[in-house]
Amino acid sequence: MRFAFTDEQLLFRDAVRDLLSKECPPEVVRDAWVSPDGRSGVVWRALAEMGVVGLTVPEAHGGLGLGELDLVLLLTEAGRAALPEPLVETTAVAAPLLRDVADGTVGSTWLPRIAAGEAIVSVALAGDPFLPGATYAELFVVERADRLVALPASAVEVQPQPSVDGARRLGSLRWDPEAEIVLVEGPEGWHAVNTAFDRGALGTAAVLIGLAEHLLEVTVDYVRQREQFGVPVGSFQAVKHQLADAALALAFATPVVHHAAYAMATGAPTRSRDASMAKCYASEAAERMARTALQCHGAIGYTVEYDLHLWMKRVWALAASWGDAAFHRHRVGLAVLGPPG
Amino acid sequence: MDLTWSPEEEAFRAECRAWLADNVPSEPLPSGDTREGFALHVEWERRLYEAGWAVVSWPRAYGGREASVWEWLIFEEEYYRAGAPQRVTQNGIFLLAPTLFEFGTPAQQDHFLPRMAAAEDLWCQGWSEPNAGSDLANVRSRAVRDEAAGGWRLTGQKTWTTRGAFCTHLFGLFRTDPDSERHRGLTYFLVPLDREGVTVRGFGRLDGDEGFAEVFLEDVFVPDDHVLGGVNRGWEVAMATTSSERGLTLRSPGRFTASADRLIDLYRRRCSDAEARQGLGIDPGLRDDVIRAWMDAEAYRLATLRDVTDIVEGRPPGARSSFAKLWWSELDVRLHATAMRLLGPYAELTGDAPAAVDGGAWVKGWQFALAGPIYAGTNEIQRNIVAERVLGLPRR
User: Fold this and answer.
1) Is residue A238 within 8 angstroms of chain B, CB to CB?
2) If you average pLDDT over residues B169-181, what whole number do you get?
3) Mean of the per-residue pLDDT values of chain B
4) How far is A311 from chain B (nearest CA, A)?
5) ipTM attached to this prediction
6) Strand partners for B146
7) Which CATH number fits domain A190-337: 2.60.15.10, 1.20.140.10, 3.60.15.10, 1.10.1040.50?
8) Active-site positions of B?
9) How far apart are CA B273 and CA B295, in angstroms?
10) Residues with Cβ < 8 Å from B269, sequence gap 6 or more?
């Protein structure tokens, strides 16, 4: 029994944290809201060179061939930096899915490009109508009715669906069914699609943990410095207790997310339930943290000139994507209690 | 990360399970917070001790089996899963003993620990006073030096002393330096309650059981070897015990995962009650609360696996143990509140009612759960600790 990461996993996390603190400061996130391409400049390529983007791509295709347990801490780092790229969709979901279900040509075309940082893949499963990074993704993987299909950007028409988070670059798609590359059809092989959904929920949960960690840190810094009535506002119990409660929710969401990564990586029979538990707790903890962060900042937090909203709005977006807390609690309920009624 | 148990740990679990299956009383004992029930619980404690299950993690010399902290967690899981009796010795073995192991002299350890393990000495905690609750450093009970007799004379009043009316010994804080203030000048004493000058008055807790006591001390003599950890070092010694109480040793996850499983069982039984709410059935929203309770207990189990790994690998949780106390105490209240709502008109029935569900255990548990956010440092104090010592917010 050992519930802890390896030294290598922690060192990789530290390296990604260093990279993102240098290359993805808040100005980069801010730029991604307004720049024509919506990207983070050199960050994606730097992450690819470090092996992060291709972490789940098999070594034969230029990746590291690693799994959920190696990725989970890195996704949390992406959340801490509010990295404006669909790392979850590309690395946590699309790469393993293409590895598992794509035939030789599709896999050998796209997996090396993902690992090299040349191609973003966006994904929408379980009937989600919107895809992040839709304005710049080069490949889309979409679940529709009885099939899972891949669509190159050239085959789709993207309708931008501006999100409250300007860096999401959300869009909906229209396409000619002729252009579909069918990855999965019929009930056979559908477990791969379910696993992909679990990976998306888990990956998004890990990002939410990072967003919440950052929000907690900046809020603690702020209430230590901001003075009213001649003392730091963080010395008031009304402020302390709000932050303690938000920190409590985060402290218990984190091991749940790490456990789900372990369950996914080891193929545990409970992995779908565990991934749902992770997304449920992470969504609730991050939403609570965002709400608490805003209240503890007061009016300064309620501006777009201050950075807080960049993280807060990402929380709102991600808490509801890949299934919100209520959806995933229902899914846990099906596993634990069986069907209702 | 490796979340599997070793073959040795699995064998340990099997051994626990088998012994508990053979020995746990088939009918629940009466409450250990009543005089009659306490006596029956002490008998049970002695059976545990005889079989080597009373203090699994202790050295063999003191009645333990030198189990690892992982095996201790397994034992606790099996113990609560089996529905075994409440541990009326817990304030000794879980709160005092870790302090004795850390601060006691070899002679104190050799004398007190085996007697505690065997439930010969029964310990209660003497910290709170009428004016020292959350503000524990406001302790007024004093100890005056008796040089001739080689000891101390204790005078004062302790209160909210759990099972104090039935116990034989008290551990607590007394002011040894009369000129001291706050947390300075306090000393941790071990006090036999059969000494002259001790008066104990039991009184009813919220559920009516005589689980509380006031302890009055009037010039009670205790010898020097009943000082634990040095004169005027009491605060430091006591704080070592509070982190045990807040965290793991008092409330292992097995307790809550077992309660959550029983809640699910209750939910299933209530779902099949066709007469509930005039035929409407139980409130559909309760399903969500049952799932939450199960998840909260499971989250506590997972966080504990992480915390125990940290402890084993030399990364002690320190003030983070306040997170654990907040989590388990509040999940226990929510879990029992859900049970009460599931029970509807049966919720108010005590164990004396012929129609009581599960022997009235849920309303009993509900009342006990309500104490969780109050004892072992109120949850407001825990939030202050989290804010100041984990997050680094300024003190007042």
Assistant:
1) no
2) 95
3) 95
4) 20
5) 0.97
6) B151
7) 1.20.140.10
8) 245
9) 25
10) none
